[in-house]
Write a structure and sequence with these properties.
five-stranded antiparallel β-sheet; 23 strands; alpha+beta; 670 residues; 21 helices; single chain
Length: 670
């Protein structure tokens, strides 16, 4: 007792008196109890780390019995362990604060005499010099460890409030799971609630081992916190989270959910919102050539003088994805009329859309509207909007890249007549394993999640889980009622891959019209690389095909008209003509001028509107009549010159291709 609490004197009553230190037995018991809780929390956190390492090393082959949805269940277990680690970290911080506040104030100062204070000054100076060198070495090691791609858990060393949409707000001491460590210093992180966003690297540190003393950890956190608060944070323009904000602020769907017109897991369609915001997520945007950083050449359009055509460009991702069916999709209530059922798909890395958004319309039987199917058998050419065979191309190096599927409906309220787009659930198929190996070619059964891709733990129809009992059989039956999407992923054949390599590096579309896209890219290469008088020339290029073809990608019925007209032309070609690429390109241009080009300027063709049955039928009737008369007259000239036809006025610039203008529109920041 004398070594710990000196200067104790006997009082007249025969007891001890400590005028410089007042410590009660209750305070001492509290301090010892808190120390025991800290030790227990530390032990539990070490157990969580060991279990996490064991989970990472676990493989499907190690399971004693077959396990369905193995990858998804493993990811859920990993998130559960991360949540436990975060909760233990928060508890340790609370206990540390309690130890500081409950400690007797001024104890250390009263323990030291004046001589001890004088002697300690010199010792502190020498210790400070040594600690500075050690801190410098430790900081360098921590920086290297923080940038290590294998280190995924980081602790926040300061409070951070989101500066713009897409940022993730966090508090000091919070554990974050890092998904992507970007070079610009903004990393994609996820908190314990499943919320994802961008966080600054300067606010993060590798979690300290709990064996370190409290004083050292507090000093380290204070220093890094000052650095974080004083660091300039770069502004970004790569986030597109305004669509998510529009979903959150949508009151119509909240009313429909409250009244029971739609299930609780339905949300306004995020991908439809992105399509409405601009051209950035449309196929026509990605079809245009991209300039190199020097702005002096094209990055993805290079001429091959030996073969007299453009160079094929292989990509990291080149797959064929077939939409097979959707099962157990919940139905909206009687107050909502469904105008269209469809699936939208795109490339996604967990935080950003990396490609255009492609839409495939589903078909269903009135007797079983909960089951959606694709690619129905029809007479003649299958409409491209119904074709479930899609190609996916990308050169992104992201380790988290995958395909995002969003099931949606276009609806109309019977009472108000208001139209809207709803998401009926979403699924994400990661294209590479954690070790960077592509996923195998096979059929995938993807369980749908409710909400948006930025929400976690939301069910499409929570009533299914509520009605399920606690027994094994009831749980099994409940799983069979969960909505699922069946997709088949496979690598393209050698012939298909050779064709796909002529397309842009990033593009998602239908397999039924890839040959038309290749014609466009080859004609584009002729105009920009082969036939230009000078590579420095910026003159407009008079070419109606180049100027108007991108419009067809947003009007699938006109794309089908071009497919039909080209198929009729191919039947008349001889074998030697089919081998001549120059002849095929000139024939394609003639077919284009005789089919869809006059329709783009026709006053009889109504404007394209999504999921409006009357407009779709009217457009198809005009297209069918025009193609029929064009075949009867062996061309469209006589039909166009007849007095019964009228065409809207157009400017000559509408027939000219301005590639610099296309580049400025597609790359406004460059």
């Amino acid at each position: 007792m004398q070594a710990v609490m000196p200067n104790l004197e006997w009082t007249a009553q025969g007891g001890l008196e400590s005028p410089s230190l007042e410590v009660s037995k209750e305070q001492l018991d509290v301090a010892l109890g808190a120390l025991g809780w800290v030790t227990r929390c530390t032990e539990l956190k070490e157990l969580v780390v060991e279990n996490t390492k064991a989970l990472h090393a676990l493989k499907k082959a190690d399971e004693p019995a077959p396990v369905g949805n193995y990858s998804q269940r493993k990811e859920e277990e990993e998130k559960l362990l991360l949540r436990l680690s975060q909760q233990l970290q928060k508890l340790l911080l609370v206990l540390d604060q309690d130890k500081v506040t409950k400690n007797y104030p001024g104890g250390e100062e009263h323990q030291k005499g004046p001589r001890a204070e004088e002697g300690n000054e010199e010792e502190e100076e020498s210790e400070d010099e040594e600690s500075e060198e050690e801190d410098t070495e430790e900081e360098e090691d921590e920086e290297k460890l923080l940038d290590d791609p294998n280190v995924r858990e980081c602790v926040a060393v300061g409070n951070f409030d989101a500066q713009q949409e897409g940022d993730l707000t966090f508090v000091k001491g919070e554990i974050l799971l890092i998904h992507d460590k970007k070079e610009d210093g903004w990393w994609v992180a996820e908190n314990s609630k499943g919320e994802r966003g961008l966080v600054p690297r300067t606010y993060l540190a590798v979690p300290k081992e709990e064996e370190e003393s409290q004083e050292e950890s507090e000093e380290h956190i204070e220093v890094v916190d000052e650095t974080a608060d004083g660091t300039e944070i770069k502004k970004r323009t790569d986030s597109h989270w305004s669509a998510v904000r529009a979903i959150v602020e949508n009151d119509t769907v909240e009313v429909l959910t409250t009244t029971g017109a739609v299930p609780a897991g339905f949300r306004p369609s995020m991908l439809f919102q992105l399509l409405e915001e601009g051209e950035e997520f449309r196929a026509s945007y990605y079809l245009q050539p991209k300039l190199t950083p020097s702005q002096l050449a094209f990055k993805d359009l290079v001429w091959n003088s030996e073969r007299n055509t453009i160079h094929p460009r292989p990509t990291r991702v080149s797959l064929i994805v077939t939409l097979c069916s959707c099962k157990m999709i919940p139905l909206p209530g009687s107050g909502v009329r469904v105008l269209s059922r469809h699936v939208r798909l795109c490339l996604f890395d967990g935080s950003r859309v990396l490609s255009n958004i492609h839409t495939v319309r589903a078909t269903w039987l009135p007797k079983n509207p909960q089951t959606w199917t694709f690619s129905p058998r029809v007479m003649g050419i299958l409409p491209s909007l119904l074709d479930g065979d899609c190609f996916v191309r990308s050169n992104s190096l992201s380790s988290d890249i995958g395909i995002l599927f969003e099931l949606g409906i276009t609806y109309k309220c019977n009472s108000t007549g208001e139209r809207g787009e709803l998401s009926c659930g979403w699924a994400f198929l990661k294209l590479f394993t954690s070790s960077g190996i592509p996923i195998p070619s096979k059929m995938h059964e993807l369980v749908l999640s409710g909400g948006t891709p930025y929400e976690r733990g939301v069910e499409v129809d929570p009533s299914i889980s509520r009605r399920a009992g606690s027994g094994v059989f009831q749980q099994f039956m409940s799983l069979r009622k969960q909505p699922v999407l069946l997709v088949k992923v496979k690598s393209p054949s050698v012939h298909s891959k050779d064709i796909l390599n002529f397309l842009p590096e990033t593009l998602v579309g239908g397999m039924c019209y890839i040959h038309l896209l290749v014609f466009y890219r080859q004609i584009l290469g002729d105009a920009l690389l082969k036939d230009r008088m000078s590579m420095q020339s910026t003159d407009l290029i008079c070419n109606p095909v180049l100027a108007t073809f991108p419009q067809l990608l947003d009007q699938p019925d006109l794309m089908d008209a071009l497919r039909s007209a080209w198929a009729e032309k191919e039947r008349t070609l001889k074998r030697i003509e089919k081998r001549d690429q120059e002849f095929l390109k000139s024939a394609f241009v003639l077919v284009y001028h005789d089919s869809v080009f006059p329709l783009l300027c026709s006053t009889f063709l109504p404007s394209y509107r999504w999921a409006e049955e009357e407009v779709e039928l009217s457009r198809w009737k005009v297209i069918h009549d025009f193609l029929k008369r064009s075949q009867e007259k062996d061309g469209t000239l006589e039909y166009l010159l007849s007095s019964g036809n009228t065409h809207r006025a157009f400017d000559i610039s509408e027939l000219a291709y301005d590639f610099l203008g296309e580049v400025r529109e597609n790359n406004p920041g460059e």
